[in-house]
Specification:
This protein has 214 residues and is of the alpha+beta class. It has seven helices and eight strands, in the order H-H-E-E-H-E-E-E-H-H-H-H-E-E-E. Strand 1 (33-36) and strand 2 (43-53) form a beta hairpin. It binds a DNA duplex (13 and 13 nucleotides) through strand 3, strand 4 and helix 6.
Length: 214
DNA sequence: TTATAGATTGCCT
DNA sequence: GGCAATCTATAAT
């Protein structure tokens, strides 16, 4: 699809949005829209859940042990995609935060699938196909969870790690479509065993697309 | 070199 | 609720 057809809302959030603490970025990214133009259809989803991961002071974070080949993106400039492979079968998507040289990032945990973006429709059918779900599968099964979200967008470490979210030419971007978030809830992070008490998980109050049991 | 835990998901009982 | 799937990073031998 031609980017020009997507319109004003396609302008990616600027670099400065990602500078500073992952905690602030995780909270403020709720309500923004993740957009992929990598495939045949434009895929879009509203970010309804995210978690913050710091560096040296956060034992649960990949950046905690210092910079390695795997987590190098977290220590680079803010606004870049960090994708890792976990449990032998799932990918998880993060965006780097903090200034160049400091480790930290935000994990995308759940999206509300959006069928049309910039006048293009059919995104939800494509996301269901990528997830291997039947045509009548509930919407919330598409991207409620970090692994599901990546599968729905066709995201792998090979095709996404290191992408610049702020580059207008990037196939993956985060945009503000004017959506007003009413209330954002913070809770402890999910699925970790270290520093599990810190309230660094944020989600859109009332959203049925948040991960976890219901 | 071998063992184990992991920012998860889906299927089984 | 329990647990297998299946690869990687890191700890232990």
């Amino acid at each position: 699809m031609k980017l020009a057809h997507i319109g004003q809302a396609s302008r990616p959030l600027p670099r400065r949005f990602y500078e500073g603490s992952p905690e602030r970025v995780a909270r403020e990214i709720i309500g923004k829209v993740l957009v992929s133009t990598a495939g045949a259809r434009i895929l879009a989803g509203r970010i309804v859940e995210a978690e913050a991961y710091h560096g040296a002071d956060d034992p649960a974070a990949h950046a905690f042990a210092g910079k390695t080949l795997r987590n190098a993106v977290l220590f680079g400039p803010p606004g870049f995609a960090y994708v890792y492979f976990i449990y032998g079968m799932h990918f998880c998507l993060n965006v780097s935060c903090e200034t160049d040289g400091t480790g930290g990032g935000v994990l995308f945990r759940a999206l509300e699938p959006l069928d049309d973006f910039g006048g293009q429709t059919g995104g939800i059918a494509e996301m269901r196909r990528l997830r291997g779900l039947p045509d009548d599968a509930p919407l919330r099964l598409i991207a409620a969870g970090p692994g599901r979200l990546c599968q729905a967008f066709g995201i792998t470490r090979a095709n996404t790690n290191g992408l610049d979210f702020t580059d207008p030419a990037s196939p993956l971007r985060i945009v503000d479509d004017g959506f007003q978030t009413k209330e954002i809830v913070d809770t402890p992070r999910i699925g970790i065993s270290k520093a599990a008490e810190r309230p660094l998980r944020f989600y859109l109050a009332g959203s049925t697309f948040v991960s976890g049991k219901r």
